[in-house]
Amino acid sequence: MSETLTLGKAINTGLRRAMENDPKVVIMGEDVGRLGGVFRITDGLQKDFGEERVIDTPLAESGIVGTAVGLAIRGYRPVCEIQFDGFVYPAFDQIVSQVAKMHYRSQGNVRLPIVIRIPFGGGIGAVEHHSESPEAYFAHTGGLKVVSCATPLDAYWMIQQAIVSDDPIIFMEPKRRYWEKGEVDVDVALSEAYPLHSARVARPGTDVTVLAYGPMMRTVLDAASAAAEEGRELEVIDLRSLSPLDMAPVYESIRKTGRCVVVHEAPGNVGLGAELAARITEQCFYSLEAPVLRVAGFNTPYPAARVEEEYLPDLDRVLDAVDRTFGW
Amino acid sequence: MAKAEGGRTKASARSEPEFVQLLTPDGERVDHPEYTVDFTDEEYRGLYRDLVIVRKLDAEATALQRQGELGIWASLLGQEAAQVGSGRALRPQDMAFPTYREHGVLFCRGIDPIMPLGLFRGVDQGGWDPNEFKFGMYTIVIGAQTLHATGYAMGVAMDGAMGTDDGEAVIAYFGDGATSQGDVNEAYIWASVFNAPLVFFCQNNQYAISEPIEKQTRVPLYRRAAGFGFPGIRVDGNDVLASYAVTRAALDHARHGQGPTLIEAYTYRMGAHTTSDDPTRYRIASEVDAWLAKDPIKRVRAFLEKQQLADDAYFTEIDEEAQREAVHLRERVLSMPDPDPLTLFDHVYAHGSPLLDDEKAQFARYLESFERSVH
After folding, report:
1. Is there a common fold for A2-192 and A200-325?
2. How many angstroms separate the CA atoms of B155 and A28, rounded?
3. pLDDT of residue B3
4. What residue ranges do the domains of chain A occupy?
5. Whether B100 is catalytic
6. For chain A: N or C, fewer Cβ within 10 A?
7. What's the whole-number mean pLDDT along residues B284-301?
C-alpha cells in the first residue's frame, strides 16, 4: 500500500515497524518520549511501546551512546537520537573510540548494532550548533558506517535497514527536508528494499555527473531541472551511503559524462568531496574532461542564520560549477 | 587572594580514612557493626592463594616487559586485595567491566591469565567475548567502561533479571583519576535515575599516573555518591576480607533491585602506573614504605598463622604453585605468534565493506610483489 508521508513521518513509521518486528529495539535520547523528540520523529512511540523501549535519557550525549554500548552487549539494538548535529561532540569519544572499535578489538566477538540518528545540516534559521554537517568525522573512522536519506521512501527503508544491521550506523537525517512529502510503499518486505549501502541514480543525464546526498539532493535535482531548460543534462547520483562509499555507479557515470561536481553542505576542506575527487581521479583519469569540482560549505564555522543562505550551496552555485567544468 | 584562601579547608581526600576494615595490617581480625565474612578455613586459604598467584603473575608480566616480550604492562602490585576481594564477591551470573589493570578480577573470574597478554604484547587488542566470560574487554580510555556497565545493567533491569536472590548484578571498575571524567559522572546519574543493578568499584590507588588524589578531589571519593542519590562507602582496599564483604553486600543490594552503590577501595599503587612510568619523579620513598607496612598479602598470612589455619609447608606449596603458573605463563607468552599482516583488515565490520575488501586485496598484491622479487 502506498502512502504519502513526509520524510519525518517516514522515519517515524520506519522506527515503529522496526520496534514491532524486534522487541530488542529500543529508542533512547533527549525528549524522545512524551514530547516525541524536538522534531517529533519519535512521536507516539513511547505511548505505544512504553517507557522502557522509548527512553527519555538524562541530558548527556556521551551517556546516551555509552549506555547504548552496554545495552548492545546485553543483546539490545539501541537507536540513539542526538537532538542536533552540533550536540554529537560530547559523545565523540564513545562513538569513535568505543562504538567504532569494539567489534574490531574483540575480533568479532562483540557486535554493536547501534544506530545513532543525527538531524543535520542548515537552512532552518537556527542559532549556532543547530545547523552543522559533521558526517566526515564519522566517515573518516573505520568501524562506523554512515548513511544519509534524501527522500521519504529512502527514509522509511533505510532506518529499518540500519536497525537490522549488526554494524554501528550513523544515520544522518536532512532536517530541513523533514517536511517534504513523497510516496512510500510501506508493505514491501525489508529484504526487497533497495540496498542500504548502494548509491542510486536519481536523475539520468549525459553531460555532467553531480554527486550529492541528504539535504543537497533537492538542491541538485532543482539545479538539474534548471540546467535541462538550457539544454544541459545532468546525471544526479544520490550517494546514500557515505561510508562505505558505493563507487561503481559513480565511476560508470563519469566514464560516460567525463565531468563531475560534488555537492555537500559540510565544509569542503578534507570533506567527502575531496575523497570522492581523489577516488574518481584514480579510477577515471582518462575519462575526465575537467577536474572534479566541489560545491561545499565554506571553511568557516557555521555562520549566523541571516547569512546561511550565502553559506549553503544553492542552485546557482551548483550551476556555476557545472558551467566551469566546461571551461577546460 | 590570601584572605579568600585562608577560609578554605585543606583538601581532605587523603585524610585518615574512615573505612571498613575486618583485618588489620597485623593480621588481627576485627569486627564491624555492618559487615562480616563467614569463610571456611579452606576459603581463607583460598583467598591467600589467589593473592599470591595474582601477585606472582603480575611480577612475571613486569619481567616479561623488561625483557622486551611485552610492549607495556600495567601492574596491579599493591591492589591485589581490592581485586581478589571484589572479584571473589561476584556471583557466577554477575558481569564485570574492567579497566586495563583488573588482572586480579580476571583471575577470579576463572579466565586464563594469558588472555590479556596479547593486548600488552601487541599481537591483538584483547579480543575476548565479554558475554562468555562475564568480563568486559579491557578499556583504556579512562572511565568509558562505566557507561557500558551502566547500559548493561539497565538491560538487566529491562530483562527482569533482578529482584531475586539469583538476580544479576554488574560491577564497574575504575580508578581515582577516572572520577574526574564526565563519563563516570554521567554513569552515576544514569545508574541512579534508572535504578540500575550496578556497583561502582573505584580503586583509589592515590595516583593517576603522577597526579595525587588532591588533583582530582577535595572530598573523599565515596562521599560523591550522596550527591547522586545512592550510598557510598569506603573500604580498606588492602583488606581482602573487607573488600569481599562490602562488595558482596553491594552486589546483593543491586541484584535485589535496590540500586547502585559506590565503593571506594582505599589502596595504593605500589609500582609504576605502567612500565613506561617512573614513580620516583613524583613520590617519596617514605610514603611507599608506609604503605608497604599495610601490604595486603602479609596480613592474610599473619592471620592464617595466628589462627593456625596454615603452616610453612602450606605457604611453600602456594609459592611453588605460583612459580609454576608464572613459568607456564612465560612459556606461552614467548610462543605467541605475530599476526599475519592481512588480518589487520579482519573484523572491522560485521557485514564487511567493499572498499575495505579492495584495500585488503591491493595490500595483499603489494606484499606478494616482494615474495615474487625474492624468487
Report:
1. yes
2. 13
3. 40
4. 2-192, 200-325
5. no
6. N
7. 96
